[in-house]
From TrEMBL:
This is Thiazole synthase. The gene is thiG. It comes from Dulcicalothrix desertica PCC 7102. InterPro entries: Aldolase_TIM (IPR013785), FAD-dep_OxRdtase (IPR006076), FAD/NAD-bd_sf (IPR036188), Gly_oxidase_ThiO (IPR012727), Thiazole_synthase_ThiG (IPR033983), ThiG (IPR008867). Keywords: Cytoplasm, Oxidoreductase, Schiff base, Thiamine biosynthesis, Transferase. Residues 4-335 form the FAD dependent oxidoreductase domain. Its EC number is 2.8.1.10. Homotetramer. Forms heterodimers with either ThiH or ThiS. Its main location: cytoplasm. HAMAP family: ThiG (MF_00443).
Length: 656
């Protein structure tokens, strides 16, 4: 069959885009594996860029534009279908338990003190000391909206292939020529990929599922009035009232892949937080529990617009904001296809932002392929192997301060015998982050002459470090110089700094008090701070609390090559940290690097073990392989250690 446009995906984004295109005269087919499984049905329908504190920039602009479309957009849908979408400009109330949260005012909110907020919304928990009122935020009944969109699409003549699974995409001569489905091959002039959390099953984009559990309560019949007339957006909880007496409570955020079902711990945490915020909920009957999968990306922004193929458009990765962004996504995608015009906003959501190692616009999706009738069929396995320059899955990217990296090995630039050896070693390590001693570059210290020109800073993220600083004040000054140095090298948005405060000239052990003081100041100045510390779990926790982007405990004294001497403390840090843990200093051999990663470290920083090896580039490659092997082993989960033997082959069914 042939169609002007074929949309892969049956969720709210796909249906809204199909309707917009159909209204413009396009012939549209939607392929839906299971409409009920889409993230749409698992959401709460919040339209809240203000309450969710989406920061100024392209994402906020996109969200505000979409929210402004909602009143007219839903009104037209209701007129067309007769289905009430539940759009409700109810406003959002964000109660707080701590007075420090009072300092977050903006032009879109109003602070309500203790007396005012408890008068404004009766029934709030006694711990609520005040809160913010966001009058412009709204909600929609996401399930009703989904029904309205499906009804509208069908009434307009959009062909919907329900319960139809797409197994592969056919590519020939740089064009999409069709899709292989459970109902046969389907083709069109143009294709839209709107597959949400399942995107990576068909195309190597860094979109992965983030599970959310939810439940609903019902307002008891003996209450004649609804106890809530606005959304409560609290600490790790939101409570969304509906006109039909349902109260939606959500949602957990779990990086567990497509693991199904509700869990006792997930539901318990939601109920505890909800009852703390609005205690009378404890007596309301539970009506329903469910779960769903948000389509997350490493930077939590959607992937919209053009793809490597001229007749394929992306509309995926909306994460928490799929419902909110539906009208604007449909509008922008339809404009780009029918008018061949691209809104300037789409540039900020282009897929190429995840291509760290490509200079050109050549597709990053090079892969081995099966050939059938001249077409390339991309299978699920091939898709996973096709991630450029990386053997990691998209859901296992290293994420630091909003930036994503495929390599979990960081290297340094000191102690090499020549600048050429350093260049080759960095290349062989496969690293994407290289630490540079700001003072040594500034002074052209031996081994650092011309370092700024020696590496391709378009491919490598510079991590300026404050090596040589003995006090917190000194480290803060050097960190500022490092940020300016990164800007001079073209990394305008680089706010990273590896913080080292080392007054001890003999053992080079970091000063915990000075490190914490410097970290607090640098975080206030907007730095992403990566502090080098002793393997002190309490200090690591304090640094995380002040806002550091990682913690970097030493395995052994710097440059000693002693291996992991602080394993017990590093293990405690790993277990408790909510930020990446980077093992830094003391690693001497690849086996030790692998061991650190097997423990659950998020990354390694290795310099001396590479630079001082007889063959530094070869050792760099070995460390790269060790880091990868260790990470895979950690994710795989080692077998349990036993005190007794256990036969590898079963004894049943053997010949006697």
């Amino acid at each position: 069959m042939a169609s002007d446009i074929l949309i892969i995906g049956g969720g709210i984004i796909a249906l809204a885009t199909a309707i917009e295109l159909k209204i413009r005269g396009c012939n549209v087919t939607v392929i839906s594996r299971d409409n009920k499984a889409a993230a749409t049905t698992a959401a709460a329908g919040m339209l809240a860029p203000d309450a969710e504190k989406i920061l100024p920039g392209a994402m906020r602009d996109l969200c505000l534009r979409s929210r402004s479309l909602y009143p007219e957009w839903t009104s037209k849908l209701e007129q067309l279908t007769g289905i009430n979408t539940g759009y409700w400009a109810c406003g959002f109330l964000t109660p707080v338990y701590d007075v420090k949260d009072k300092n977050e005012q903006d032009n879109h909110s109003y602070w309500l003190d203790f007396q005012t907020i408890h008068q404004y919304q009766q029934g709030l928990g006694e711990e609520v000391i005040g809160g913010w009122w966001y009058p412009e935020d709204a909600q929609v009944d996401n399930r009703a909206l989904s029904r309205a969109l499906l009804t509208a699409a069908q009434s307009l003549g959009v062909e919907i292939k329900e319960n139809c699974r797409v197994n592969g995409i056919l590519i020939s001569a740089g064009q999409i020529t069709g899709v292989q489905t459970s109902a046969g091959v389907m083709s069109a002039e143009h294709y839209i990929l709107a597959t949400g959390a399942w995107t990576n099953e068909l195309f190597p984009l860094p979109v992965y599922p983030r599970k959310g559990q939810m439940l609903s309560l019902r307002v008891p019949d003996f209450l004649t009035e609804l106890p809530l007339n606005r959304v409560l957006y609290g600490e790790e909880i939101y409570i969304v009232p509906r006109h039909d007496r349902r109260i939606i409570i959500g949602a957990t955020s779990e990086d567990v892949g497509f693991t199904p079902y509700n869990t006792p711990s997930g539901i318990q945490s939601l109920l505890q937080n909800a009852i703390r915020l609005f205690p009378q909920l404890k007596d309301y009957p539970i009506e329903e529990m469910w779960w769903g999968y948000r389509p997350a990306t490493p930077d939590e922004l959607p992937i919209l617009g053009e793809s490597p193929y001229s007749n394929l458009t992306f509309a995926t990765g909306h994460y928490r904001n799929g419902i909110l962004l539906t009208p604007i996504t449909a509008l922008l995608i339809a404009d780009s296809i029918t008018q061949h015009s691209s809104d300037a906003l789409l540039e900020h959501f282009h897929y190429s932002r995840f291509q760290k190692n490509e200079k050109s616009s050549t597709p990053m999706f090079t892969h081995s392929a099966n050939f059938s009738n001249g077409n390339i069929v991309k299978s699920n396995i091939e898709t996973r192997l096709s991630l450029s320059n990386s053997s990691v899955a998209p859901s296992d990217l290293l994420q630091i301060a909003g930036k994503s990296f495929t390599s979990r090995l960081m290297t340094g630039t000191g102690k090499y015998r020549s600048i050429e050896e350093m260049q080759k070693s960095v290349e062989m390590s496969g690293c994407q982050i290289v630490t540079v001693a700001v003072r040594r570059v500034q002074t052209n210290a031996p081994g650092h002459e011309g370092l700024a020109e020696a590496l391709d800073w378009g491919k490598i993220w510079m991590l300026p470090n404050t090596a040589g600083c003995k006090t917190a004040e000194e480290a803060v000054r050097v960190a500022r110089l490092g940020r300016e140095m990164a800007k001079l090298l073209g990394q305008e948005d680089n706010n990273f700094v590896k913080l080292e405060v080392i007054p001890d000239a003999k053992y080079l052990l970091p000063d915990p008090i000075g490190t914490l003081q410097a970290a607090e100041q640098l975080v206030k100045e907007g730095f992403a701070v990566l502090p080098y510390i002793n393997a002190d779990p309490i200090l690591a926790q304090r640094l995380e609390e002040v806002g550091c982007a990682t913690v970097m405990p030493l395995a052994a004294p710097i440059g000693s090559g002693q291996g992991i001497q602080t394993a017990a403390n590093i293990q405690i840090i790993i277990e408790n940290a909510k930020v990446p843990v980077v093992v830094d200093a003391g690693i001497g051999a690849p086996s030790e690097a692998a061991k650190a990663m097997e423990m659950g470290a998020d990354a390694l920083l290795i310099n001396s073990a590479i630079a001082l090896a007889r063959n530094a580039p070869a050792m760099a490659q070995a460390m790269n392989l060790a880091a990868t092997a260790g990470r895979l082993a950690y994710l795989a989960g080692r077998m349990p250690i036993k005190d007794y033997a256990s036969a590898s082959s079963p004894l049943t069914g053997t010949i006697n």
